[in-house]
Protein: Transposase
Amino acid sequence: MEQWRKDSRKEAVVTDLEALVPQDHLLRKVEKVMDYEWLYEKLDPYYCHDNGRPGIDPVVLIKMALIQHLFGIASLRQTYRDIIVNLAYRWFLGYGLLEEIPHFSTVSYAFCHRFPEDLTMEIFEHILNKALNNRMVDPRTVFIDGTHIKASANKKKYQKEQVSKAAKVYAEQLREEVNAEREKLGKKPINDDDDHDDEGTSGGG
Structure:
């Protein structure tokens, strides 16, 4: 049987993620407007810095949830699986090709136990508004969990209303998704006033 081309799947290549992600990729545009100083200031009060255990960068968890909703991925579990194999997603998180991605249960825990729902809404409103105001993102392509920002979003009032609505829908649906996952494990649903329990769930994706 004639072989049309050689199989290059095991070919060793010297490169890096920076060279492999297209310059016009949506996540490059979002990265340009990420306000890290503001984000860390908002997230810092929800972490203990003297417990002797290095934690996962909270901004990475925010970015994982942002990937889910910018690209319409059905669940955090699937988002975790997609990030493992997607070069652009890894680049956006700042993770190398061989680094282990934070498990989706860790993301779930953070958004249900560490980050209040109103903080989640505030963070995503902030990121989306900066991306839109700086024209880094086409309003017709930006959405959070199915809530679209229409082409007329250049009107500031309309944009503000739609982004706020989108962030609220996102926060509510994220909570619903996590609670559905907890029910499968025989755990009670999480409310904002619940006490913290063990972080995450065991097992793979």
